[in-house]
Write the structure tokens for this entry.
Amino acid sequence: MADRGRHVLIEFPSGFGVSAKEELSDVIDLGVTPILAHPERYSCLTPPGALEELVALGCLAQVNASSFEKRSQVRSRVLAWLRSGLVHYVASDGHSPKNRPPLLAPAFSIVASEAGLGNALRLFHLNGMALARGRPPLPPQPVSSQSWWTNLLDNLKLRSPQAS
């Protein structure tokens, strides 16, 4: 990647279902941070705690924007990862303007409402810019159980701390 060799985007073959911990550990041992492309597609990461283990190892996760849109088990899993601070980037997975267009706006709105505007900006904009400069992603801010509106106001700093 254009970050002086500090990160590598890793995509496993379709249907990948075995543990990748050893292979990813080898990459980390080389001083390179793996970014897992669309981890929501891998059956080995569906059990609770599986992605968390890889993130604790030193991996980063990049989910597809379209995974936030469709009501499904994938969406539920991605939202749970988002709320747990396990998502570092959101990408379009766009391949062409016709067949798979790079649409991000609908997912940005969902992430902003679920995790706050600050987290949406981190995942869609700021972390990508940091990556291009060879810097680590900004850590996610905690997602509270407050309403999406309260989270939005808190992230925009439009609410006073006393007005809870």
